[in-house]
Request: fold
Amino acid sequence: GVLMHDDCKTLAYEIDENGMPKFTRRGILLEHLSMSYAMSTLVIQTAQQILRKQIPEEITDHINHCILAHHGQLAYGSPVVPKSLEAQIVHMADMADSTTSNYAEPTKANASMVDANGFVEGSRFSNRQLFIGTTHEPASVHTR
Reply:
């Protein structure tokens, strides 16, 4: 589940002229969870043919559950919510990756997309580098 949960994300997104991700036609219509589930099914079938051995359905269902539940909530596009510790761990790792990536993405934004305060248009994130142990005050705050 960990290895395959975002396997088809490259089919769901492409990079636009500003270096920002946007949905492909497949991404809009199918989303990466369902495409990754389909890919997982094909990989499992291929592995069974190569190994000449049936992988227990309990294991394949669990792998596919981790893939389908990795967004964690129905509101976030998961067709099911995590129902096992492993699925919850995949979700939490994916969420951590997603949220930390969101902080890094604005640093890749085209300069014309950044406002005077360093925030990327349409984003709540700043492109300014902040480091642990430093203080940051909004530009509107003045101290004496």
